[in-house]
Design a protein that fits this description.
Bound molecules: zinc ion
Helix content: 25-40%
Shape: elongated
Number of strands: 3
Strand content: 15-25%
Largest sheet: 3 strands, antiparallel
Structural class: alpha+beta
Strand order of the largest sheet: 1-2-3
Number of helices: 1
Order of helices and strands: EEEH
Length: about 60
C-alpha cells in the first residue's frame, strides 16, 4: 500500500521486524492492510505483501484438507 519511514529517537533501542518474513526493518517499512482480517501489517516491501497473500492461501487450503 505505502512506504513509511521508521522514525525513531536515537535512544529508542526497540527493533521492528517484518510481519511476513521476520527480517529486521531498517529505516522504512512497507505497510498493507490484510485483505480479510483488515489488520495493518508491516513488512520489508511489496514482495513480502505478495508472499503474505500466498501464505494465507496455503493456510486456507491446508485447513480445508
Ligand atoms: Zn519481509
Amino acid at each position: 500500500m505505502a512506504w513509511h519511514e521508521l522514525n525513531k529517537n536515537w535512544h529508542d533501542t526497540t527493533v521492528d521486524y517484518c510481519d511476513v518474513c521476520g527480517n529486521l526493518l531498517i529505516a522504512r517499512y512497507w505497510s498493507f492492510i490484510e485483505p480479510d482480517g483488515g489488520e495493518t501489517r508491516r513488512c520489508c516491501d511489496e514482495t513480502c505483501e505478495r508472499l503474505f497473500g500466498r501464505l494465507r492461501r496455503l493456510e486456507e487450503s491446508a485447513a480445508e484438507s
